[in-house]
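Today's session is about reading a structure prediction critically. Students often jump straight to the picture, but the first step is always the sequence itself: look for stretches that repeat, for charged clusters, for runs of hydrophobic residues. Only then move on to the predicted structure, which in these notes is written as discrete structure tokens rather than atom positions. Here is the chain we will use throughout the hour.
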Amino acid sequence: MNTRTFRVTVRGVFDGLTDDQRAALLAEAAAHDVLHAAFTPEGSLTYDIAARPAFVFRFSDTGEEEEDILEATERAETAAVAWLTERGYGFKNLRSSAEDLSQAPLSKRQRRAARSPGT
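Below is the predicted structure for this chain, in token form.
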């Protein structure tokens, strides 16, 4: 059986932040810039609190069955909530989306490489 790779995105909005929490997020903003975004097993957080209170967690996970994507999504949501809760950050409007990379369409370059003999 093939291992499937899932990309899970958990989005939300910070809610009810104190001045100290906002300052802490601003101090760490460079480490959570979208330029550092990556899908990782432990999760990658991005935000721009100076512009808007939204945040995005990106997770990667694996499974063997198509249905495993549901469990991967649940694990990602649980991890995002735990990270926010451990730091006392309020949040709202949490929503998730997931993609099974084995089902993703091939890019033009990938299709061309697949048609080329000898690769």
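Discussion point for the tutorial: Strands lie at 4-14, 44-47, 54-63, 91-100.
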